[in-house]
Amino acid sequence: MRRASLHLMSRKSRIPSSINKGCSTSSKPGTTGPHWERPRVMIIRSPLMNEYIYTAKDQNGEVVKAKVEATSQSDAAKILVGQNLFPIDIRSPEEAGLKVRLQRFIQDVRPVRSKDKVIFTRQMATLIRGGLPLAKTLQLLIDQVDNKKLQEIIEDVSNNVQGGSTLADSLAQHPKVFDTIYISMVEAGERGGNLDETMLRLANQEEKSQKIRSKVRSALTYPTVVFIVLIAVSILMLTMVIPQVANMYHELGEPLPLTTKILQGIANFMTNYWYILIALLAAAVFGLRTYVRTDSGRAKLDRFKLSIPGIKLIIKKVYMARFTRTMSSLINSGVSVLEALDVTSKAINNVHIEEAINEVAERVKSGDPISKPIRNNPIFLPLVGQMIQVGEQTGSVGDGMDKVADYFEAEVDEAMENISTLIEPATMVVLGLLVAFLIGAVLLPIYGLVSSIR
Questions:
Q1: How many domains does the chain have?
Q2: 242 located within any domain
């Protein structure tokens, strides 16, 4: 019995001290003997792993986009470097999602500019002329374009072409970027096997159209800026200066001059009922835009464009240049005269000239040469019909129209330069008169008060 107890004690003495500390006598009443408690174990957790989206380059310079798990962005960078990747961008899914949404918003807001389309068209013509297949040309152009929206469009066009669609049909799926003229010329170029020459004509035509638009825009920029500054100065004087002058007269019991009374009434209305003014202005703009989109509204606006005093001849030359340039590009690309007239009528952007072109097409269907109805219609300038008639006699209608377009574009350029020269001094004269009126309405009452005090 004693040996058994000694043996038990010896076994107990070999229990590790860490477990012995967990062993204690029971503190519960009515229990005897040792009570074993579970040993406390310290759990060491590993750092929380996060998922990151990265963009990196491998040793061959190829761009790699994928995901990696790491504790932080710096840890993710170390992992990528350990895999022989050179990190370009590392973001969490939340940051990457926000960045993608922002990029898409900017792409949707930022339109495809005419300059971007010209560069794309000219590069495409160069690559096709160099002997590259169309599918390979489109794939190369995807990375050459800076505009992201145009890049996505080219990628979609490339996929459609590889799927068996024609280039014209693929481009026609994006009408906001490629208009009817562009599609028709590409289609004619594909049929005639001279797509490279067609693309060069398209690039040249777009460049010349862009040049005319920039001339008109630059001529209107200076007076627009001056007009905005004038409005800002007028509002400042009406809301800040005129009320103080009126208070001075009121305190001295002197009657206000007529001009100051008129300006004071305008100032009071703008100060107290500015929201009505804004509402009326917004309603007027909205109503005008809505009316212009109707058939009758558009017809009246287009008629007004052709009858603006002083510049109606310039506007008509712009339309004639657009008509002859589009017709020459289509005819030289292999499009028939009737089809070219139909496409041009839809792209001329004036309902009255569109009706005149449709009348010309009807006469051509009846067997008349194209020059005859154009010469008999007063909406076309005389030179257009005369040059087309010369082209019919020499068998080069397209070249004749091209020369007419060059002539009218040169005329428009010269007219725009003359207008720009005249607009600046005319704007300064108008600005000086308005400022003189406002200053007179403010300073003359003050001089009158000083004279009455003396």
A1: 3
A2: yes
